[in-house]
Amino acid sequence: xxxxxxxxxxxxxxxxVVSVKSAATIAQNLDxxxxxVYKIMLTQQGWFYEPADSVKIExxxxxxxxxxxxxxVKFEGVFIAIHGSPGEDGKLQxxxxxxxxxxxxxxxxxxxxxxxxxxxxxxxxxxxxxxIAKSAQIFKGTPYSLEQIKKTLKVPYxxxxxxxxxxxxxxxxxxxxxxxxxxxxxxxxxxxxxxxEFISGREFTIGVVKLDGEITVLPATEVETAKExxxxxxxxxxxxxxxxxxxPIRKETLERVTQIVKNVYLKLNCRGVVRIDFxxxxxxxxxxxxxxxxxxxxTATSFIxxxxxxxxxxxxxxxxxxxxxxxG
Length: 328
Known about the structure:
Elements: E1 3-10, H1 16-29, E2 35-43, E3 46-49, E4 57-58, E5 65-68, E6 71-74, E7 77-80, H2 91-99, H3 108-114, H4 117-124, E8 130-131, E9 135-139, H5 146-152, E10 157-161, E11 171-173, H6 179-187, E12 192-197, E13 202-211, E14 214-217, E15 221-225, H7 232-236, E16 241-244, H8 251-267, E17 273-280, E18 287-293, H9 303-310, H10 315-326
Helix pairs in contact: 2-3
């Protein structure tokens, strides 16, 4: 019997555009012999299934079912492909937990905590050989001292929304006088902000996933961009960034990185596929944790599909194993 899987896409943030592209890649690569896939679009207006041959059908949120030609369709699992809220911040995970429907991502608590960059860093701090940039966390509506921040942290700074994704609302500040403007910009995206010291070095991203009961680390990608940092444009505009998969890293460095990211996966109680961004400073020196993405992009040009290919796997097999591991 084929498993009925709901592929959930859309969302309520600026990242919904990426979610729709991710869902298209996933839909193309889910094994039609093993899964009956129903793509569900979640928007501010509602949750809908949009069959190709008829008008869209609203989802019954009491039990996450749809009524198709007079028959109730319930799902055995959900492939969540929503970046940002409510797919990545634990809200949907909590909803599915209450309904007893399994899903492909980290659980509600891990999803909620890892959306907050500051809290995540506090948890992973202490993992062997993992370093964290010095930072300050500020909250909208709570007094903060600009002068104190400037005294404590060295320029340049990165100013980023604590719960954002895709580098939306993020700035690199090269002069202390520009800090306030960067804070104001970030506060348009979020009520909490992280201000971090800039770490120079090579930037990488690496997928980690549990498959066949084993934590598997995918080949790393090195990201180089002529821009000040890897922002939204660099992430989603072809040619703006150079991405090399697998990254040219020495074997012993890769072994160290592999152990660190496995420990991050375990410490944060991850499940499904996650992506960890990090910097190696100097000559493949200290590992600096940047952030973790618990619903990484799956668009045709995204890192995870690149890394799966570099590992010698087909996306079809990868998604099948991912569903078996998380949904059963």
